[in-house]
């Protein structure tokens, strides 16, 4: 199967191709399976960076 976009399904905690769960249950799209697999880690890092901004203000 060849696809150019991938999503991370929050409901099933796995990477999915375009034909997957509804978008309301997913993060993405991402350009690769590997990028989609790191979606939760990236979101965590971004949240921590954003929360750190609150401490500086």
Explain how this protein is built:
The mean pLDDT is 91. Helices cover 40% and strands 23% of the residues. The chain has one domain. The protein has 57 residues and is an alpha+beta fold. It has helices spanning 33-37, 39-56; strands at residues 6-9, 14-17, 26-30. Strands 2-1-3 form a three-stranded antiparallel beta sheet. The chain is elongated. This is SPOR domain-containing protein. Residues 17-57 are annotated as: Disordered. It comes from Nonomuraea soli.
Record the strand order, biggest sheet. 2-1-3
Could you state the order of secondary-structure elements as H and E?
Answer: EEEHH
Number of helices: 2
How many domains make up the 3D coordinates? 1
Task: Give the helix/strand layout.
Blueprint: E1 6-9, E2 14-17, E3 26-30, H1 33-37, H2 39-56
Antiparallel strand pairs: 1-2, 1-3
């Amino acid at each position: 199967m060849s696809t150019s976009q991938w999503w991370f399904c929050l409901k099933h905690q796995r990477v999915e191709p375009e034909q997957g769960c509804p978008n309301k249950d997913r993060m993405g799209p991402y350009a690769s399976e590997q990028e989609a697999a790191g979606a939760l880690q990236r979101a965590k890092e971004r949240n921590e960076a954003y929360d750190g901004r609150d401490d500086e203000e």
